[in-house]
Amino acid sequence: MKYSLKQIEVFIATANFQNITLAAEALNMSQSAASESLKNLESQFDIKLFDRAGKRLQLNDFGRLIRKQAETLIDQAKSLELSLQQNQLSADLNIGATLSIGNYLAIHILSEFKGKFPTAKAALSVGNTTKITEQVANFELDVGLIEGEVSHPDLNIRPWMDDELVVFCDPKSELSTLSYVSDQQLSKAKWILREAGSGTRQAFDNAMQGVLHELNIELELQHTEAIKRAVESGMGIGCLSKVTLNDAFKRSSLIALKTPQRDFKRKFYIITHKDKYLSPGIRNWLELCFEYAELHNTYS
DNA sequence: CACATGACAAGCTCTGACAG
DNA sequence: CTGTCAGAGCTTGTCATGTG
Predict the structure, then answer these.
(1) Does residue A170 sit in the same domain as residue A232?
(2) Which tens digit of pLDDT belongs to each residue from A217-244?
(3) Strand C, nucleotides covered by protein (CB < 7 Å)
(4) What pTM was computed for the model?
């Protein structure tokens, strides 16, 4: 770098006062030091930022041109300094989660986090696994909670919680009376599923290998709640994460079906960038996530 | 002409790089 | 770890010049 922030400060102060002595006073330095600093800035780039009419300093066209940029630079430097100073106390964080995790798990952890750090700003973005992974890799998110298994050279990917997809129907369906449902019966049913590309759909497709092409997919929806409503109204059967269905099963508004020929077990993962500095906020969030997992008798 | 102001010179302090 | 050196940036003192 061919200039210092001090030189930029001198430039801005001199531009403000049109007087190097006052600029120097404002910056708590001697007139000579300010004069020297400004001269060095100009000579470093072989430019003139002021017209010298005798002893008068008048900001010239080029000086006016870069003044705004210089002020922005100093503002950003001050903001950076503040962030660095407040780092020890900062617990702010940006979390990304898939739809199921975001709506049914992360929100509970977030509530605990806010209880522990009432002044911290926490943002929760919901997206699919691919989107969340991209954003963590690009440093747009601090932590990602995802459903699908991913691999990325820049990411730390840790198994978090065990999960399981559950096939379900409405209480009036004939299937609800059966002790278990066979592959043949699954093939005959009308399915209401998450859209292709979602972590849930990916897990479903994997679990249904062999009979996937025989399935009668009636409807594909982007929202778990919409799928639950459609199944409740008798449009067909669905398959979603058990974390999204527990309440409905308790209310008996939906019925879980046993599918012994299919293995719907899967895992949730926590992802962070390998080069990401883990601030106190991020470390606490990760701790809370793993405590939550342990408490709910899942991953350890 | 007195005063204000910018620029220059000399010397000091601090810091980082480097060698022993 | 310590001593040395170079460079950056600062202050003090001084000079030149514009202004009222």
Answers:
(1) yes
(2) 999 998 899 999 999 999 999 999 999 9
(3) 8-14, 16-19
(4) 0.60
